[in-house]
Design goal:
alpha+beta; two-stranded antiparallel ribbon; CTDL_fold; C-type_lectin-like/link_sf
Length: 225
């Protein structure tokens, strides 16, 4: 019996090293796209509210024992603002697996590199279902991030535009937030158009504004622990 368990552990480790998927029973979900947003546009109740939304959906899916964090950056108030939050710094160290046990990325650096396994087929919601992409109705591929391609926050506002809808507290027509395309699809094949975390800003912060550009207030959720 001891030898059998040891063999299973070795095989599972080998599969992870090769980037293969593991059965959901063998690897707990540690990443998902939210199946729904909080419903108030980009007003998520700040980072804390966004994290609570991730935790709520994870608990409903049976993954509530982990510490969940929304992949969101905040907007710096000044060049030397030490309180700015970078999305890449708040999601743990990985590895991360989707609801079906498929490896998304081994660590933060791989997550933000061409070697990550980020596609429409792998960026599933907490129920293990695919999220509508650019060619489907309604299009929901705009995922709120407020981040640059490397997962860091944008320069301070002002003089630059705020890319976080007031640090995720605005839900009206004014303001904007950076989004990524979970389906890696856009109007062109350029890197910005196919970026999972930094494709284009919204045309407002309300739910209607988010939907007008192909979004629905959805988030990326990562298990920090």
């Amino acid at each position: 019996m001891h030898d059998t368990k040891k063999t299973v552990r070795i095989l599972a480790g080998a599969l992870v090293m090769w980037g293969a998927s593991l059965p959901a029973m063998a690897v707990d979900m540690s990443f998902f796209v939210t199946s729904a947003g909080p419903g108030n546009g980009a007003n998520l109740g700040g980072l804390e509210g966004a994290d609570r939304h991730c935790e709520k959906l994870a608990a409903t899916a049976g993954a509530g024992k982990r510490t969940w964090r929304a992949y969101l950056s905040t907007q710096a108030a000044a060049i030397n603002d030490t309180n700015v939050v970078h999305a890449r710094d708040r999601i743990g160290t990985g590895p991360w697996f989707n609801a079906k046990g498929v490896l998304i990325a081994r660590n933060v650096d791989e997550l933000h590199s061409p070697h990550s396994n980020l596609t429409k087929a792998t960026l599933l919601d907490e129920k293990g279902q695919m999220v509508n992409g650019r060619t489907e109705k309604p299009n929901r591929h705009d995922i709120l991030t407020g981040s640059r391609p490397d997962g860091t926050a944008f320069p301070p506002s002002p003089p630059f535009h705020d890319m976080t809808c007031g640090n995720w507290t605005k839900g009206g027509d004014e303001g904007m937030a950076m989004t990524g395309h979970h389906d890696r699809a856009g109007p062109t094949g350029d890197a910005w158009a196919t970026s999972w975390n930094s494709a284009h800003p919204t045309q407002g912060c309300s739910q209607k504004a988010l939907q007008s550009t192909g979004g629905d207030g959805l988030l990326y959720c990562f298990a920090e622990k």
